[in-house]
Amino acid sequence: MSTSVSVVLLLAINLGLIWLLIAAPVGRRTLRLSRVLKASPARLAGLVSPLGSEADWHPSVLSSEPLSSDRARQTLRYPDRRGEPITRTVSVREARDGDGIACETRVIEDSALDSSFWEDYVDRRFMRPVPGGTLMTVEQTDRYRGIAFLLFRYVQLRREMKALDQWLATGQGEVRGILERPATQMVLAILSTVLLWPFFGLNVRGLLLSSFLTVVIVLHEFGHMAAYRAFGHKRVRMIFVPLLGGIAVGGRPYNSRFEVAVCALMGAGMSAFLVPPLIALHDVASRATGAAVLVFLLILGAFNLLNLLPMHRFDGGQVLRQVFSSRAGLLSASFLVTLAIVFVGWRIGLPFTLLIAGLAVFTLLSLIGAGGVKPRRALEPMTPPQRLLAGFGFYAALALHGYAIVYACDALIA
Question: Which of 27, 107, 143, 197 could form a disulfide with 210 if both were Cys (CB 3.0 to 4.6 A apart)?
Fold first, then answer.
């Protein structure tokens, strides 16, 4: 399989997976899980109902305060955009059918998210006695776009059921699973390298290329994580998704447009700091080592330059949307950035038809899942100095990665 065909196939697979995860019209779906727990229905109702006497058993719930016979205010450990605990006001309907108890919860108000996020969400808990305890069935209904959040909710429900069983036995519950652990992410990074290997050829050269790409992805996500830390996120992590790359996750929602711009820019920004040292290393390295440095430099530049494309889901699109407040300014900047990236492709000898086809693919990718979660309050606007800093930072990252590609290609051809 030729390299060009492999790259096209890899892009097609990525496009399909991204569409499935964040854009597929999944619609209204109900997750349903059941578990036999060693407790009475009344005891379980006191734990799982926001109006219950032990509703704060869950590790993520700081308190659950009844406001009336059918409403409660929950305070969560998760921080909002200012670092304060998120609060939610929920409506609760409880019903009894013989020895069985049913509880239905809906979210009325959320201090972090717009009310539209919870329009279709319903949580139902059914508890009925069975030999050995109580059979609790949990149903969560919501409307989904893509299966990513649906899978996340399913994993969280399984963890909650396991933690509840543990709480009843020991008085302590732990909701965290193995996915967040560094060892698990390391295994997923290795798995991603192995899965990418066939696309570059099942030989030593192909393994080296797939390993370089994995390292570049990790460095990119470390840049995002460093920015989160700089803005005061107490807990940041990276989740590696085989074939698709990595996702840096902050510890709270964004507070300002400047924060959005910097956190998005630092993925390519941190990698840009490596370009001058790598070029200097190539100048003093041996022939074999120098060639490996050039290949790494090429992958580093290409991956990050493509991330700077002014597409909605890409880092470049996120930065430009914050920097330019007017539609005319955003369109002009997007055109110039795209033109600069196309020029780099033309400069290294890529066919014009391939460049146009690539832009069409990335434009399609940008249209996938263009919506997002709406915060309750608008983000703090950027000041003129912040726009200047973010704009020149974007320009520097664009120029350095473009130069890295041109330098590496010229040196490899020479």
Answer: 197
Least Cα distance to 106 among 89, 87, 126 occurs for 89
Q: Which residue has the tokens 């109580």?
A: 134
- How do residues 118-148 score in pLDDT, each as one tens digit? 999 999 999 999 998 999 999 999 999 889 8
The span from the CA of 205 to the CA of 186, in Å, is: 22
pLDDT in tens, 212-253: 999 999 999 999 999 999 999 988 988 888 877 888 888 888
What is the per-residue DSSP string for 113-172? B-GGGGTT-EEEEEEEEETTEEEEEEEEEEEESSSHHHHHHHHHHHHHHHHHHHHHHHS-
**Distance from CA of residue 374 to its chain's centroid?**
15
Which token pair is 248? 């840096």
- DSSP character string of 243-269: TTEEEEE-SS---BHHHHHHHHHHHHH
pTM of the predicted model as reported, rounded to 2 decimal places: 0.86
Bridge-partner residues for 249, per DSSP?
237
Name the pairing type of β-strands 133-144 and 27-37: antiparallel
DSSP calls for 196-244: HHHHH-SSHHHHHHHHHHHHHHHHHHHHHHHHHHHTT-S--EEEEETTT
